[in-house]
Write a structure and sequence with these properties.
The complex is a heterodimer of chains A (317) and B (299). With 317 residues, chain A is mostly helical. Chain A is built from 14 helices and 2 strands, in the order ααααααββαααααααα. In chain B, strands 1-2 form a two-stranded antiparallel ribbon. The termini of chain B are far apart. The chains are: A mainly alpha (317), B mainly alpha (299). At the A-B interface, α5, α11 and α13 of A face α5, α9 and α11 of B.
């Protein structure tokens, strides 16, 4: 049976989701569930960045600002209003997308290097705002006091199992939506801009508008990742918006492969797993991670999935 | 925000002198680091994200060398030479393998080096902060300029950095090597085709950049504490300096490093909580009004 690409994507997503949801019924492992919860946030974050980096050729060093913004917007809405969780999440994503639209409107016309640096500058500006606006954000201590009323449709998200199920569903749906966007004509347009922006421009594509849309969408999905992160830590911390966090997303994208849709998800999983395993054996996590990164960068010279796809190309086209 | 305090400071000569000096210290150290970043970018079109590591290692090497030789001059010299050598090794062993690949691949290699050496420093010198202390030669009463206190070491630091700026500027514009470097910045392939050994040239550029960062680390050691993460923060600021001044411009690096230094010096009085924010706003404003930077050539 031959499936249409969209049907194939939905089928793969459904199988993956069912597999993740079934595992706890056979075997409960807090460490594994913890891992999936963190991975769901990180995977959305990294994949949304790859919509810019891999699809459009826009290298953003400041993508963490939308991750942090999503987390803070969501946590603050939950703490300050009586709105139910889904409404607060949607508001947080809308707010983050709006912020991405504003930042993008200023940045997307700049050349590659300057785009990278100005996004970094905006991220650091947000970070210093979070640190200095103590009355709202709690400064460098972060938003504490936990998130109230963490239940949704009868799920009590304070329970790890329910949070695990919730995060898995949200992440898979989010990734599916991103996949759909990247496979759509709009996604094709973005790849055309990446490969040859002059030709795209001649063919009538308004470059800045397509880039701005990509930036806004990517910001919104990073915000969704931030919402999951806020649920996991039950609050928000300035580190979520700091630049090493953007770096993590860039490494996830690079380790997994920028030309494969699931590359960033794999990269995020590798980074998180490395973190979990290595910190158990040594306090010198950076040393090990650095050597692994060097081996990837100088050995494979591309991300894992990209490497595998080059090594074993799928049948002749 | 405390504009009254800023106004009061600006009308008091003593306060102006003190804040200007501290701004100059920040600015000159930044210049030494950023000059290397901008030189390497100008010639190789590579953004060296590992440059902060050179600075950090320079500080630690000077710390150890001072303990061994008991001479601050020797400590500064050894830090400079060690980091020049380190720069060459870094370029030959790692960066030369990713020339021409994706910017992100270069970023990845640099960040790996940052991670590795942050931990190497923790292993060799320990994770705690180290204070080098003022070298004995400078443990003398401070100078008083218009009522402001200026420690003699500050004056020497500023003098050395200013001297380096002059030597670097003259060297680039007057000497044969400097002219070759500038030619390579415009078209490295053509320079290579004309018979210049560009491989050697690239190594020299990394040696100069590394040496300057090592010098900055050694000069910073007596006035700042040494810690494994110290390279990270100066890296971000030296990028800001490079971007504001114009990527590849030494004069731009000097002017914008001093600008950032002054924003830091006086910003701590007017906006104690938001000094960093001021700098980022400055960077965003310049990128928008003049994307090529203050002294950059428009492409």
């Amino acid at each position: 049976m031959k499936l249409r690409p969209a049907q194939r994507d939905v089928t793969i997503a459904a199988i993956a989701l069912i597999a993740i949801l079934v595992i706890p019924f056979f075997h409960r492992s807090p460490a594994f569930e913890d891992f999936i919860i963190r991975l769901s946030a990180m995977a959305l974050f990294a994949t949304s960045l790859n919509l810019l980096v891999g699809n459009t050729g826009m290298v953003s060093f400041g993508h963490g600002m939308f991750y942090g913004l999503g987390a803070y917007a969501f946590a603050l809405t939950m703490q300050m209003t009586g709105l139910p969780l889904p409404v607060a999440a949607v508001l947080a994503i809308a707010f983050t997308s709006l912020a991405a639209l504003c930042v993008g409107a200023i940045c997307v016309r700049l050349g590659t290097d300057y785009f990278a640096f100005i996004t970094l500058a905006f991220q650091m500006l947000l970070y210093s705002l979070i640190i200095s606006w103590q009355s709202l954000t709690g400064g460098d201590q972060g938003l504490r006091g936990g998130l109230p009323r963490r239940e949704i449709f009868g799920f009590e998200l304070a329970s790890q199992l329910h949070l695990y199920q919730f995060c898995a569903v949200v992440a898979v749906l989010g990734l599916l939506a991103l996949r759909h966007i990247s496979a759509s004509p709009f996604g094709q347009t973005l790849r055309m801009i990446r490969d040859n922006e002059n030709r795209a421009s001649f063919l009538g594509v308004v470059l800045w508008r397509a880039r701005l849309w990509a930036f806004t969408i990517a910001g919104g999905f990073a915000g969704l990742g931030g919402v999951l992160a806020a649920l996991f830590v039950s609050g928000a911390y300035p580190e979520l918006a700091d630049w090493p966090n953007s770096g993590q997303a860039i490494f996830a994208v690079m380790l997994g492969g920028i030309n494969s849709f699931l590359g960033p998800v794999l990269g995020a999983a590798i980074l998180l797993a490395l973190n979990d395993v290595v910190t158990r054996f040594t306090e010198y996590y950076g040393l090990v991670l650095g050597i692994v990164i060097l081996a990837f960068a100088l050995g494979l010279r591309r991300g894992v999935l990209d490497f595998l796809r080059l090594a074993w190309p799928r049948g002749s086209k | 925000m405390d504009l009254d305090a800023l106004g009061a400071c600006l009308t008091t000569p003593a306060c102006v002198v003190t804040q200007t000096t501290s701004g100059l210290i920040v600015g000159m150290l930044l210049f030494l680091v950023a000059a290397g970043v901008t030189l390497i970018f100008g010639v190789l079109k590579i953004v060296n994200f590992a440059h902060g590591t050179f600075y950090m290692l320079g500080g630690y090497v000077a710390y150890t060398a001072l303990g061994v030789t008991d001479s601050y001059a020797l400590a500064v010299l050894s830090a400079t030479l060690a980091m020049a050598l380190f720069g060459v090794l870094f370029e030959r062993a790692l960066m030369s393998r990713v020339y021409g690949s994706n910017v992100l691949m270069q970023l990845l290699v640099c960040y790996a080096v940052v991670l590795i050496f942050d931990d190497v420093v923790k292993i060799v010198w320990g994770p705690e902060f180290h204070a080098m202390g003022m070298p004995p030669a400078f443990q003398v009463p401070p100078l008083f300029i218009a009522g402001g206190v200026v420690p003699p070491f500050y004056a020497v630091l500023i003098g050395i950095a200013a001297l380096i700026a002059i030597v670097l500027g003259l060297g680039l514009s007057m000497t044969r090597l400097g002219k070759t470097v500038r030619a390579a910045a415009i078209n490295a392939q053509m320079v290579s085709a004309l018979g210049v050994n560009t491989t050697l040239l690239f190594a020299i550029v990394f040696a100069v950049g590394g040496g300057l960062a090592g010098l900055a680390g050694a000069l910073a050691a007596p006035v700042r504490s040494l810690s494994p993460g110290m390279g990270f923060s100066i890296l971000i600021e030296s990028f800001i300096v490079t971007v504001i001044g114009g990527m590849g411009s030494i004069a731009g690096a000097l002017v914008s490093a001093l600008l950032i230094g002054m924003v830091r010096g006086f910003g701590t009085i007017g906006f104690p909580q938001f000094t960093d924010g001021l700098i980022y706003i400055l960077m965003i404003a310049i990128l928008l009004l003049r994307p090529q930077g203050l002294f950059g050539r428009s492409s």
